[in-house]
Design goal:
The protein contains 8 helices and no strands. By secondary structure, the chain is an all-alpha fold. The chain has one domain.
Length: 166
């Protein structure tokens, strides 16, 4: 198991604003993956271009909507992940999960280091931290998957972990 950076589990456990209108509208939207150019602006690393939408609706609203969008994207990934599990030998699938985990951990470390260049109140810091939270959630899920594949019988334990998440 790769070493998990300090802070990943704390960030992964931050509650989502599921009761807000912005979260709900972006989570349920079918355009959340492809057509939301305004929200896709936040998928990369800071610094970010400040959009008129941000100025108009405010950072809190954008963050809530972005949580909904990212959960929608994460669910799509999870469904593809489950399909891959069912169509790939368990050993191969576990190797792929480990490779994904190593890659996301590296991205997490790079983003965490980059965030040290910004003040905590800056938009770039806040939105970068938002992205770091979602990378943390992804790491957490991949660690759970890898443990289930390693410690369990391969099939049943992984499916149970998947069901608990959703």
């Amino acid at each position: 198991m790769p070493t998990i950076p300090v802070g990943v589990y704390d960030l992964a456990g931050v509650r989502l604003p599921k009761t807000t209108a912005a979260f709900a509208s972006h989570f349920k939207a079918t355009y959340a993956l492809t057509e939301s150019e305004e929200m896709a602006n936040w998928d990369g690393l800071p610094p970010y271009a400040i959009s008129p939408c941000l100025i108009c609706v405010g950072l809190k609203h954008i963050c809530e909507g972005l949580h909904g969008r990212r959960l929608h994207i994460h669910q799509e990934f999870e469904h593809q992940h489950l399909t891959r599990f069912h169509t790939t030998p368990t050993i191969t699938f576990a190797q792929e999960v480990r490779a994904d985990l190593v890659r996301i951990i590296q991205e997490w470390k790079e983003l965490s280091k980059l965030l040290k260049k910004f003040d905590e109140g800056e938009t770039d810091y806040i939105m970068g931290k938002h992205l770091l939270q979602w990378k943390s959630r992804h790491i957490f899920c991949l660690v759970e998957d890898l443990k289930a594949l390693k410690d369990g019988d391969g099939q049943g334990e992984f499916i149970e972990v998947f069901k608990r998440r959703w």
